[in-house]
Design a protein that fits this description.
By secondary structure, the protein is an alpha+beta fold. It has helices at residues 23-33, 82-90, 119-122, 124-135, 178-192, 228-238, 260-267, 272-286, 326-343, 349-352, 355-365, 372-393, 400-417, and strands spanning 47-54, 58-64, 72-76, 97-100, 105-109, 138-148, 152-160, 166-174, 198-199, 205-207, 212-216, 252-253, 294-296, 305-307, 313-315, 322-324. Helix 9 (326-343) packs across helix 12. The protein is globular and about 60 Å long.
């Protein structure tokens, strides 16, 4: 969810429209631009729920409204690029793409999109036929769950099986062939994790032409949350899955992007030197330690690992599965917990104090242990490259106070590692 603080981006020297971007002004411009008959909800109900920002290049906004299945996408350009971009966009979506010159922006109205083909969910009859043919279910409704413009569209399908029982399916569309890769990974994992404490959804249906994926829901235990001990055991077991040798798996390296400094410089320039120094200290310290590679989930947090009604731990969302270090999953999990604590005005020490015990629990179950020192360093790295970098790039950083908290925690982790 976007934090709502557009003022973070007001000083971009090239994407100058950001200097007067607010939700209110965006809504006003959209009302003047988008034909009233195209959205399925009044424009003033649409809110920015997703954001992608590249300093000096662009900002892409995803807007959704409660109960709406028709998201809007807004792409804000530097001045002078709007006209040529509009000509190109109208070749593909002549009736669903509009210029919004007040913000040097283009607006795509569902099912129009710059990269993502949303036609499979725009045709309800065809979608029902697909669900019936490939899942043997009658689809009753399709509810938008998550929309990342130019990237993914996720919806929850309420269905009925032939016996009249209620069934939940999830639909996902990708902008590229990621769904095919994810399907292969899930097939591999379903065999590797059989008869373990971990459970993943049954094999999905995937259509490479439309890039439509259908996946069954897991039976969550809604009355319980995953404990740290359960998470540690789950990660240790997941990391025991052999790294696939098949070239058809197309696993992508889990490389950290080196854009933290450019994002901080664009949004919080007074912090650039401190964060640059911290990043170099972390990198230098990591080179003095030795890591090893396993198959990692790549997006380990409480939304993707959860207790099931059968007592197992359920895992979903395999788009980021990759070859990496076990600390990557451990530290993504703790980075997310630290973010939640800060958002809920809880002291992060409550989370950090449990970090050594988590590492110990992980090592009790792992085939190969991780070092506490290196794991602290990786947590500091994750805070810079996920919580700060991604927080700015995706508009999820609430402001300078949250930035300062992550920097202080990362510095604490560097001290706790004891490598300098």
């Amino acid at each position: 969810m976007h934090s709502g603080n557009f003022s973070l981006f007001a000083n971009d020297p090239r994407v100058t429209s950001l200097s007067h971007l607010t939700q209110e002004y965006l809504t006003k411009c959209l009302i003047a631009t988008v034909p009233a008959n195209l959205p399925d909800s009044p424009i003033d109900r649409y809110q920015v729920t997703n954001l992608r920002y590249k300093p000096g290049q662009k900002m892409v906004l995803g807007l959704t409204a409660p109960g709406s299945q028709r998201p809007l996408a807004v792409r804000i350009y530097p001045p002078g690029k709007l006209s040529s971009s509009l000509d190109e966009a109208r070749e593909f979506h002549p009736d669903h793409c509009f210029a919004m010159p007040e913000l040097d922006a283009l607006v795509w109205v569902f099912p129009g999109e710059r990269k993502l083909n949303l036609k499979p969910v725009a045709d309800e009859y065809q979608l029902k036929q697909t669900v019936a043919k490939h899942r043997g279910l009658h689809m009753n409704s399709c509810t938008l769950v998550h929309y990342v413009p130019e990237h993914t569209y996720t919806a929850c399908l309420s269905c009925t099986d032939p016996q009249g029982g209620s069934v939940t399916e999830y639909l996902k569309l990708h902008y590229n062939n990621k769904g095919a890769v994810t399907t292969r990974i899930m097939k591999y994992l379903s065999e590797a994790l059989a008869e373990t404490m971990l459970e993943i959804p049954p094999m999905p249906y995937y259509d490479p032409e439309s890039r439509l994926m259908l996946q069954s829901a897991l039976s969550r235990n809604e009355s319980a949350r995953l404990s740290d001990n359960q998470a540690a055991k789950a990660f240790a077991r997941f990391h025991q899955v052999p790294i696939p040798t098949s070239d058809t798996m197309f696993l992508e390296p889990n490389a950290m992007a080196s854009t933290t400094n450019s994002l901080v410089e664009a949004v919080f320039p007074s912090w650039t030197a401190r964060i640059d120094s911290l990043g170099r200290n972390i990198t230098n310290s990591l080179t003095k330690t030795i890591g090893y590679q396993v198959l990692i989930h790549g997006d380990a947090h409480l939304g993707n690992f959860f207790p099931l009604e059968n007592g197992k731990v359920g895992i979903i969302d395999f788009d980021a599965v990759a070859i990496g270090e076990p600390e990557d999953d451990i530290c993504s999990y703790f980075g997310f917990k630290l973010w939640l604590a800060l958002r809920n005005n809880q002291p992060p020490t409550q989370i950090l104090d449990r970090f050594p015990d988590f590492i110990a629990s992980y090592n009790d179950c792992a085939l190969r242990s991780v070092s506490q020192s290196r794991t602290y360093l990786k947590l500091a790295e994750k805070l810079l490259n996920e919580r700060i970098r991604r927080g700015i790039a995706r508009g999820k950083l609430s402001g300078e106070n949250e930035l300062a908290s992550f920097v202080e925690i990362a510095e604490h982790c560097l001290d706790a590692a004891g490598t300098h």
